[in-house]
Give the backbone structure.
Amino acid sequence: MEVDKQKVAEVMVALQEAILSEDLARFYEHVGKLEKLTGEEFTGKVLCTFASQLSRENAIVNVILLPVIEELKRGEK
């Protein structure tokens, strides 16, 4: 499967902007787009990276991303 790297980059920027602005609808929209372009595994890695780099005070990071990441870590053990 060939990936359009420019499109992926655009979606990743839009996803990060949605997280920073705490826009839940845009967050889910861009997660879906990224998953269609790259697959579930890559999308998960991107979300983990964003969560580790962004403020814990951000609602999307704190309420959605961090709990999912913690659950995934427990599942790997």
